[in-house]
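Re: beginner question about structure tokens

> Can someone show what the tokenized structure looks like for a real chain? I only ever see the sequence side.

Sure, here's an example I had lying around. Input first:
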Amino acid sequence: MSLKPLVSVVLPSYRAAAYIGQLCRTLQAQTYDNFEVLIGDDGSGDGTESVVAPFLSDPRFRYFAWNPNRGFGRATLTLLMQAKGEFWCHPGADDLLHPDFIEGRTAIFNRHPNAVLAHGPPVHIDEKGNAFSPENEILPLDRLTVGPSLEQLLQHNVINNPGIMARMSTTRLVLPFLSTTWRYAFDWFIWFLLASTGQEFIRDPVPRHSYRVHPTSLTCDPKWASFRQSETRLVPLCALAAASRFSADAALLWSRWREPLYVLWLTRAAQLHRRGLLQDDWLQLGAQAFYSNNSSRVSLGWELIRHAPSVARYFMAEQLAARRQAFRVAGLAMVNDPLFFKMPAKLTPIRPV
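And the corresponding structure tokens:
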């Protein structure tokens, strides 16, 4: 019997038949052998089952399928509930793991027994598997070793999801606070919850996975644009509200950033509304987080009127803070963490009053 801890590879898949076989081969090529692979075919209808079938002769691989499509968050949660590992990782079905990925990540937990999550930078590849350098590569993260902090996560999701490995015991503790409604930024929500426990995040500077960017991926496909635009405002708001229920650190940040998070979401909601892209469910999710699960439904117009002075104030403050960033952060630029500055500088963070 292996003395190595079992690692669960949680692999939701939606219409990734063209790529998932390549990922499975990189899993079988791992230098670390004590792992299980849980593949969830999320209503793909693209022949994923036939691609996966040859790998099921390997007892480490298990295949689940369901219809209709549940979405990335619910599919991930379904697989997590079946996982048996001490740790779990979460590659995209179109990504690749380098042979030392699992061994390298488990070694981090051996060196850092208080760590809850290990992550690292990817090699970016295109749909054909060719490596490339993204135009907006986040170079300041080379300075990040332990972290990010909860406040840094509030400003930007600096963790590349396919490169994570997380501790299962802590993950199970925060799952009751997890919302699975998200299509684009579900992983960001989990990082908030895990970071709120106060356990360490450790960054491995060595690339151990390849992150595929192609026209139909969530990060590029135009049909997901409204989800990306809504969730980059909603997830920090809703995740911090959820984390504040069990974490003193998160509760302190919630008291500080609650109002700007909400009014900047209202600003984004107004922009989506003008283009006919706002979904009412998004508006209600934001209000439930801000008003602590008040069941009363809200309207965008009345919310904008109610918060008009704050909307004007924080919109301008956010624009000014964004100019100091080395790149366009996804979350709250007003946090103004030096990690994201264009150049090292002594700047006083903007704080709400």
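Each token stands for a local structural state, so reading them left to right follows the chain. The chain has twelve helices and ten strands.
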